[in-house]
From TrEMBL:
Entry keyword set: Membrane, Signal, Transmembrane, Transmembrane helix, Transport
Keyword Membrane among UniProt keywords: yes
Protein name per the record: Major facilitator superfamily (MFS) profile domain-containing protein
Organism (species): Sporothrix eucalyptigena
Family: Belongs to the major facilitator superfamily. Sugar transporter (TC 2.A.1.1) family.
């Protein structure tokens, strides 16, 4: 039974302009740190060198402090969605983003520029990005049928890397601009993304599951009818699906408390979300995204410091395309396992070759290739699947709060990694690869032993999955209630048995 309609596709993908904002900001700022106009405006002047230079402290502050805003945005997004719904939060985050970009652009003043003002602007922009991460993933997970949920939620990484590709091209265009026009143009382009989000939001419905949590069943049915095909509407399937979801939710109809996150089976689910958001930030992504231009310039690759990032981000974006397919065929678990294996491999190669005192041209090329191949395998799985797990693993009563906690924890580690990487690059150079490669290997082991497979399961069926223990060496046999089987049918599954087997490795 086909569940794909134009409005469903539009509702799932149009607001990913918010993820383009995140990708654009991350990569564009990495290039701005090496932009002569930006350096002249905001970097301290060193009399001995007779030039403006960003030291490790100023670089770390500009890169890490914005994550305070992202933490606030992530943490507040969950309660805000519960209270006013996804559409209202989309409008709110658009306004916040526009204010932040405006503060950044107007921070040029006199000969030096207002460093603190630019930093405040970045913090505000990142507050909107934090809201984007929680709002988009929970909205997508609640409106899309189970067989397509992985593809849809993982697509956020495609848009994120697309934003990065745009940023690398613009960075290169202004790489030799010594005036404010360069960095202000790079920054000002960010106005486009919140404008698109605010416009698109007018045309999408609220999540039917959110409307049910507010006891607005008629509106939930109307919203679902807009998202489903005319044949399904005519057959009365929308009313039946709403009835089945409402019955399945039962005790989880209304939103739960913060304490419920660590009670019963919710503790295991919350822990998994938190752990994977930790791995997303600590397996090396900031080293290869935000700091790749700076790293190239300071480690013998200055001539291509703005060119290599373009290649890297393009390859990363291409890697998301098979990831969108693999996550719903191989599954979340197998895709992550493959991703972590090769992430560790390429980082170890980078560290090993880079530690050589004397290197050949071939070895230098291998180092650059390792950077690029890490980006490929990071985007193949571990970049986006944590967002998917955060959206589908929690139960309905705690989805927004779990995603908010997980994303906030993700921000804490983004802050830590972005703050310490400049110091790591300056002190241990290529040995940074041993650190992040080791964490990738740890993530591989954790995934094998603790992550169950959730592909093709309706959100309510995942509740049954976590009601039983997980063993990585056998298939997980989950008992389904009559209502859960009905939800599985409406979500596109044909399995009518009283149990369902979930594959492991």
């Amino acid at each position: 039974m086909s569940r794909t309609t134009p409005l469903l596709l539009f509702s799932c993908f149009c607001l990913l302009a918010g993820d383009m904002l995140y990708g654009y900001d991350t990569i564009s700022f990495g290039g701005m740190l090496a932009n002569p106009g930006f350096i002249a405006r905001f970097a301290p002047y060193h009399a001995a060198a007779k030039t403006h230079v960003f030291d490790s402290l100023h670089t770390s502050l500009l890169s890490s402090m914005p994550f305070i805003g992202k933490f606030i945005g992530c943490f507040l997004a969950g309660p805000a969605i519960e209270r006013v719904g996804h559409r209202m939060v989309f409008w709110l985050l658009s306004a916040v983003s526009i204010i932040g970009v405006l503060i950044e652009i107007t921070s040029a003043s006199g000969n030096q520029g207002r460093y603190a003002q630019f930093l405040v602007g970045r913090i505000i922009v990142y507050a909107s990005i934090g809201m984007v991460e929680v709002n988009i993933t929970t909205y997508q997970a609640e409106i899309v049928p189970a067989p397509l949920r992985g593809l849809v939620v993982v697509s956020m990484q495609l848009f994120l890397t697309a934003g990065g590709v745009i940023a690398t091209g613009i960075n290169k265009a202004f790489a030799n601009t010594h005036t404010d026009a360069g960095w202000q143009t790079v920054t000002g382009i960010q106005f486009l993304f919140p404008f698109l989000i605010a416009t698109f939001t007018y045309f999408i419905p609220n999540s039917p599951r959110w409307l049910l949590s507010k006891d607005r069943e008629d509106e939930a049915t109307t919203a679902l009818r807009r998202l489903r095909s005319p044949d399904e509407v005519a057959a009365g399937n929308c009313e039946a699906e709403i009835s089945a979801i409402k019955e399945a939710l039962q005790e989880n109809m209304h939103k739960g408390s913060w304490r419920a996150l660590v009670q019963g089976t919710n503790l295991r689910r919350t822990a998994l979300v938190i752990v994977y958001y930790f791995f997303q930030q600590t397996t090396g992504q900031a080293f290869v995204s935000t700091y790749q231009t700076t790293f190239y310039k300071t480690n013998g690759f200055a001539a291509e410091a703005f060119t290599y990032p373009i290649i890297t981000t393009c390859l990363g974006m291409l890697a998301v395309v098979p990831a969108m397919y693999l996550v719903d065929t191989l599954g979340r678990r197998a895709t992550l396992l493959q991703s972590y294996v090769f992430q560790a491999l390429w980082l170890f190669i980078l560290a090993g070759l880079g530690s050589k005192t004397v290197r050949t041209a071939t070895q230098d090329n291998a180092i650059v290739a390792s950077f690029m191949l890490f980006a490929v395998f990071y985007n193949l799985g571990s970049a986006s699947i944590p967002y998917l797990l955060g959206a589908e693993i929690p139960n309905a009563a705690l989805r927004e709060k779990t995603q908010a906690i997980g994303a906030s924890w993700n921000v804490v580690w983004a802050f830590v990694t972005n703050f310490i990487i400049p110091y790591m690059i300056n002190s241990i150079h290529f040995k940074v690869g041993w650190v992040f490669g080791g964490i990738s290997a740890l993530a591989l082991v954790f995934t094998f032993f603790f992550l169950p497979e959730t592909k093709a399961l309706a959100l309510e069926e995942i509740d049954a999955l976590f009601s039983v223990s997980f063993n990585p060496f056998i298939k997980t046999d989950i008992p389904l209630t009559t209502v859960q089987r009905r939800i599985g049918y409406f979500e596109g599954e044909d399995d009518k048995d009283a149990t369902k087997f979930v594959e492991t490795a």
